[in-house]
Amino acid sequence: MAGKGSIEKRGANTWRLIASCGMKGDQQIKKTKTVTVKVSCEQKSCKNCTRIARCQARREAEKLLAEFVLEIEKGLFLESSKLTFSNFVDRWIKDYAESNLAPKTLSSYQDMLRKFILPAFGHLKLEQIKPAHLIEFYANLQEDGIRLDGKQGGLSEKTISYTHRIISSVLQDAVQWQVIASNPASRVKPPKVTKKQTACYDEEQTAALMEAIENEGLKYKVIILLAVFTGLRRGELMGLEWQDIDFNKGTLLVRQASQYLPDKGTFTKAPKNESSVRLMALPASIMTLLKQYKVNQAEERLKVGDLWRGTGVLSNFTELLDSVTSKDVSAAQLLKILRSQDGIIEKWEDNLQAIAVRINNEEIIQELCKFGEKAAPEIAALNTLSDMQLKEFISLWKSKKSSGGRLFVTWDGQPMHPDTISKWFPKFLKRHELPPLPFHGLRHTAATMLINQGLPAKSISGRMGHADIGTTYNIYGHYLKSADKEAADRLEKVYQNMKGNVN
User: Fold this and answer.
1) Is residue 359 located within the same domain as residue 322?
2) Which molecular function GO terms apply here (predicted)?
3) Count H helices, E strands: the chain?
């Protein structure tokens, strides 16, 4: 436990905080920390200073000392002299990343840290990391043999830049938490990323795409046309629910996105940024197609009968279960464990009866009974919940039930895997002998179509859900310049015609 502490003046704005932490034998244990205060004091020492009682710099240092002692008492102090980069990353993930980063971003960060960053300098003390370490590391990432997929060459400029962004983010938080004085990554420039023109179709290619999609199933036809005429991101498309479509007003509301992670399954998250939540008007022909698709989905549901999970208690099951349980074991991992257990199928009735005793909700019990042994792992998973968690699960399910279900689902009504469309699209293009294009290229195609129609950049930015108009210019600057040049050429023709008429 930390006891009293003291402060020592080190510079005009810097002070050393010293906390006494008991005795080890006959030796006193002390922990120190150097801090920077906002108020300057030019006195070299506080000794014999006549203004010591009124010194605002000293008062600020004393306040930081009190906080420092409290940190030690609560076990929150991170001692930089002993802390390795790997130790800090563990703490950073737990205290910051897990609660502040989107699940897929967190997974991507952890993947890069595990594969490349920590093996390189995870063992280094945090305060020992210098710009030279990072420069050497980025050079190594460009060398042949560094790739884990066995391909020749080093990592791409884009991947190395992404790695730098991760390291810089972690170290900047170390600065904010006053573990280190400065961020060494801020003094290093990663390899410059060569900016590539966004992949998209021109008007002729888009017309060929429209013609080809007429010969495909209705679900895929709707996905492709919505992507082209709205510019929605893949996750936003997969996250659409029928409650988001207003057939009377001809609008579509973007309010969530669907993503997938191996240890989490398919889950729903908020859109990329605040601007991504947006209401969009749709062309009349697209609204007509959506009405037809909704009727078609209802017909498919009748064919499936009792096996339809659309808005039932088993729809979005892993997502709902994750919302009410701890993060130690995900719902997807729990179901995998339960499926491997002997006798889990035979025990489904016993587990369901145990749930029925604990909750007063005949609707849920009847639906689970309807699925029977096909839902044995899910029933067993529900039976692992506490009474409070079970009530919470039911409350979340009720709120989901009113959504009308997802637009894009599997044969039994569960949310469609986000990767399904990305895998289907290249095969579709090849089948119809269309130029290769990633599915995300349809979003860029939508933006360039709007640019070619003369829509202002601000309106395009809003429709695409960009955080600010600068993002729009950064991605589509080339196309905006081309459209502006075409507009100037057209004005020149108008001017020449007017001039000819005058003459």
Assistant:
1) yes
2) DNA binding
3) 21, 8
Q: What is the CATH number of the domain that holds 170?
A: 1.10.150.130
Cα separation, 172 vs 138, in Å, equals: 18
- Among left, alpha and beta (phi > 0; psi -120 to 50; other), residue 153 is left
Quote the number of domains for the chain. Answer: 3
Q: Both 328 and 387 in a single domain?
A: yes
| CB contact at 8 A, 226 and 383 | no
The C-alpha atoms of residue 157 and residue 165 are separated, in whole angstroms, by 12
The answer to whether residue 106 is domain-embedded is yes
> 89 with 62, same domain?
no
pLDDT digits (tens, 9 = 90+) for 62-88: 888 887 787 777 666 666 667 899 999
Backbone angles phi, psi at 469, to 5 degrees: -65, -25
Token pair of 165 as six digits = 């962004």
Sign for the pseudo-dihedral over CA of 49, 53, 57, 63: positive
* Whether the Cβ atoms of residue 123 and residue 83 lie closer than 8 Å to each other: no
Give the lowest-confidence range in 27-41, 276-290, 409-423. 27-41
Question: Which residues have C-beta within 8 Å of that of residue 67, sequence separation ≥ 6?
Answer: none
Specify the amino acid at residue 280: M
Do 62 and 133 lie in one domain? The reply is no
Beta-bridge mates of residue 409 = 415
pLDDT in tens, 317-338: 888 888 888 767 788 888 888 8
The pair of structure tokens assigned to 310 is: 């659309």
Residue type, position 421, single letter: I
User: Which of 13, 38, 73 corresponds to the end of one domain?
Assistant: 73
Continuous segment of H or E residues that includes residue 245: strand 245-246
What's the pTM?
A: 0.73
Helix (H, G, I), strand (E, B) or coil at 302: helix
Backbone angles phi, psi at 343, to 5 degrees: 80, 5
- Residue 409 is classified by DSSP as B
